[in-house]
Amino acid sequence: MNKIIKFSHEAYAELKKSKWLSRQEVVQSTILVGIVVFLAAIYVFAIDWGLAKAIGALVNRGA
Protein backbone atom coordinates (compact mmCIF):
# COMPACT_ATOMS: atom_id res chain seq x y z
CA MET A 1 0.00 0.00 0.00
CA ASN A 2 2.91 2.31 0.74
CA LYS A 3 4.20 1.94 -2.83
CA ILE A 4 0.85 3.02 -4.25
CA ILE A 5 0.76 6.15 -2.10
CA LYS A 6 4.38 6.98 -2.95
CA PHE A 7 3.67 6.50 -6.66
CA SER A 8 0.59 8.74 -6.43
CA HIS A 9 2.57 11.53 -4.76
CA GLU A 10 5.38 11.29 -7.32
CA ALA A 11 2.94 11.24 -10.22
CA TYR A 12 1.16 14.31 -8.84
CA ALA A 13 4.48 16.11 -8.42
CA GLU A 14 5.38 15.36 -12.04
CA LEU A 15 1.98 16.62 -13.24
CA LYS A 16 2.57 19.92 -11.42
CA LYS A 17 5.83 20.33 -13.38
CA SER A 18 4.03 19.96 -16.72
CA LYS A 19 3.16 22.96 -18.85
CA TRP A 20 -0.49 22.67 -19.79
CA LEU A 21 -1.85 24.18 -22.98
CA SER A 22 -4.10 27.20 -22.72
CA ARG A 23 -7.71 26.98 -23.85
CA GLN A 24 -6.88 28.95 -27.00
CA GLU A 25 -4.01 26.59 -27.87
CA VAL A 26 -6.26 23.56 -27.42
CA VAL A 27 -8.96 25.09 -29.64
CA GLN A 28 -6.43 26.02 -32.33
CA SER A 29 -4.87 22.55 -32.24
CA THR A 30 -8.28 20.92 -32.47
CA ILE A 31 -9.25 23.03 -35.48
CA LEU A 32 -5.93 22.24 -37.17
CA VAL A 33 -6.39 18.51 -36.59
CA GLY A 34 -9.92 18.74 -38.02
CA ILE A 35 -8.65 20.47 -41.16
CA VAL A 36 -5.85 17.92 -41.65
CA VAL A 37 -8.28 15.01 -41.19
CA PHE A 38 -10.70 16.59 -43.69
CA LEU A 39 -7.94 17.08 -46.27
CA ALA A 40 -6.69 13.52 -45.75
CA ALA A 41 -10.24 12.21 -46.23
CA ILE A 42 -10.61 14.13 -49.50
CA TYR A 43 -7.23 12.78 -50.69
CA VAL A 44 -8.15 9.17 -49.85
CA PHE A 45 -11.57 9.63 -51.48
CA ALA A 46 -9.99 10.99 -54.67
CA ILE A 47 -7.48 8.13 -54.90
CA ASP A 48 -10.20 5.54 -54.19
CA TRP A 49 -12.57 7.07 -56.73
CA GLY A 50 -9.87 7.28 -59.40
CA LEU A 51 -8.74 3.70 -58.88
CA ALA A 52 -12.34 2.47 -58.91
CA LYS A 53 -12.95 4.25 -62.23
CA ALA A 54 -9.70 2.90 -63.71
CA ILE A 55 -10.37 -0.67 -62.61
CA GLY A 56 -13.99 -0.40 -63.78
CA ALA A 57 -12.79 0.76 -67.19
CA LEU A 58 -10.33 -2.13 -67.43
CA VAL A 59 -12.93 -4.69 -66.36
CA ASN A 60 -15.55 -3.35 -68.78
CA ARG A 61 -13.01 -3.22 -71.62
CA GLY A 62 -12.22 -6.92 -71.21
CA ALA A 63 -15.86 -8.02 -71.17
UniProtKB/TrEMBL annotation:
It comes from Elusimicrobium minutum (strain Pei191). Essential subunit of the Sec protein translocation channel SecYEG. Clamps together the 2 halves of SecY. May contact the channel plug during translocation. GO terms for biological process: intracellular protein transmembrane transport; protein secretion; protein targeting; protein transport by the Sec complex. Keywords: Cell inner membrane, Cell membrane, Membrane, Protein transport, Translocation, Transmembrane, Transmembrane helix, Transport. Its main location: membrane. NCBIfam families: secE_bact. Belongs to the SecE/SEC61-gamma family. The chain crosses the membrane at residues 26-46. GO terms for cellular component: plasma membrane. It is a single-pass membrane protein. InterPro entries: SecE_bac, SecE_sf, Translocase_SecE/Sec61-g. The keyword Transport applies. GO terms for molecular function: protein transmembrane transporter activity. Component of the Sec protein translocase complex. Heterotrimer consisting of SecY, SecE and SecG subunits. The heterotrimers can form oligomers, although 1 heterotrimer is thought to be able to translocate proteins. Interacts with the ribosome. Interacts with SecDF, and other proteins may be involved. Interacts with SecA. It comes from the Bacteria. It is found in: Cell inner membrane; Membrane. This is Protein translocase subunit SecE. Pfam families: SecE.
